[in-house]
């Protein structure tokens, strides 16, 4: 089954699904700054565009471009800035 999710007044939208490798969401973010919270370990893969991210425990913002990924442990908060539409694949463990 595919689930549709919408956050931040429709500025972040994703489709959730489960495959043989586990749960994932495929989504798009509009330009903006967002704070997310995790309940599971996440691997965020940037598909198109770029994300500038402030990971938990870090004071440095790091930019991830298409083809790059970063990981966040469960039960953490992190911040993301995008300057234009950016697509992602988020995989959960």
From TrEMBL:
What reaction gets catalysed by this protein?
A: a purine D-ribonucleoside + phosphate = a purine nucleobase + alpha-D-ribose 1-phosphate; uridine + phosphate = alpha-D-ribose 1-phosphate + uracil; thymidine + phosphate = 2-deoxy-alpha-D-ribose 1-phosphate + thymine; guanosine + phosphate = alpha-D-ribose 1-phosphate + guanine
Q: Which PANTHER family match?
A: PYRIMIDINE/PURINE NUCLEOSIDE PHOSPHORYLASE, PYRIMIDINE_PURINE NUCLEOSIDE PHOSPHORYLASE
EC number(s): the record gives: 2.4.2.1, 2.4.2.2
Q: What is the designated name of this protein?
A: Pyrimidine/purine nucleoside phosphorylase
Query: Taxonomically, which superkingdom?
Result: Bacteria
Which function does this protein serve? Catalyzes the phosphorolysis of diverse nucleosides, yielding D-ribose 1-phosphate and the respective free bases. Can use uridine, adenosine, guanosine, cytidine, thymidine, inosine and xanthosine as substrates. Also catalyzes the reverse reactions.
Provide this UniProt record's keywords sorted from A to Z: Glycosyltransferase, Transferase
Keyword presence, Hydrolase? no
**Gene3D superfamilies in the cross-refs:** Jelly Rolls
